[in-house]
Amino acid sequence: MSIKENIEQINTIKDEVTLKAGRKAGDVLLVAVTKTRTAEEINEAIDAGITDIGENKVQEILDKYDLVKDVRWHMIGHLQTNKVKYIIDKVSLIHSVDSIKLADEIDKRAAQNGIHMDILIQVNAAQEESKFGISTEETEQMIRYILNSCPHINIKGLMCIAPFEDNPDDVRIFFAQVKEQYDRFSTIQHERLNFKYLSMGMSHDFEVAIMEGSNLIRVGTAIFGERNYNI
Ligand SMILES: *Cc1c(COP(=O)(O)O)cnc(C)c1O
Questions:
Q1: Which residues form the Alanine racemase N-terminal domain (predicted)?
Q2: Which of 31, 76, 143, 230 has a CA-to-CA distance to 153 between 20 and 30 Å?
């Protein structure tokens, strides 16, 4: 199937599941994950209606930025502090804030650019050693820290990457835990905390994620096919 057909199919499933979850079709934002993809492929996706794309490496954003049509860029991968300066004026949302050091750097660079940066906190409810992200207790501390000390950051919600399971139903509990945290922290009253995005769900688990409350899914393989990292 073509990129366009894949996107149409995912949008259909996404809207069906959203309705099934008792929410309005269109409630869930599809972010096309474009890592390893060429500018041509990305532009094909944009022509097919994609408004938001996600990259997990700073270098790929820089390489493709001028070649890709008008679109919102999301930084979804682990972000090193020394690379924040390269993307601060290019991305509209950083999904992967997982340390105070990184928040401080984003705040500093946003201030220098005269902007406010929208971010999500990357949480790790399953406490997996191999994944970046922080625990529930640390999440609360980080939110408080950012609200107190990072005046150029707006907190827009949470992001997570579920552990990979052959059967996506096995990560349902994980998504449910993150949704619980999302609901809890969304009640914090602060002008720079406006929860809007719960970023969870990828190609193989986005249906379960939406059922459990996700409103932003990050989908690569199901749109563009399997990735080849050797190119
Ligand atoms: C690669 C990636 C995705 C997309 O994964 P697919 O399985 O290709 O849909 C989503 N989120 C993050 C953080 C990623 O790095």
A1: 25-227
A2: 31
Is 213 a domain residue?
yes
Summary mean pLDDT of the chain: 94
**The domain containing residue 25 runs over which residues?**
3-224
Is 231 inside a domain boundary? no
- Ligand 1 nearest-atom number relative to CA 202: 9
Closest-lying ligand 1 atom to the alpha carbon of residue 221? 8
Tell me the CA distances in angstroms from 14 to 6, 183, 218, one per residue in order: 12, 22, 12
- What's the pLDDT score for residue 163? 87
Q: Which residues pair with 117 in a beta bridge?
A: 153
Tell how far the Cα of 220 is from the centroid of ligand 1, in angstroms: 6
Question: Which domain CATH number covers 32?
Answer: 3.20.20.10
- Quick check: is 229 in a domain? no
Cα 149 to averaged position of ligand 1 atoms, centre (Å): 31
Domain count, the chain: 1
How does pLDDT run across 152-186, given as a tens digit for each residue? 999 999 999 998 889 989 999 999 999 999 999 99
- Residue 110 burial (CB < 10 Å; 0-12/13-18/19+)? buried
- Give residue 130's pLDDT band: very low, low, confident or very high (50, 70, 90): very low
pTM here? 0.95
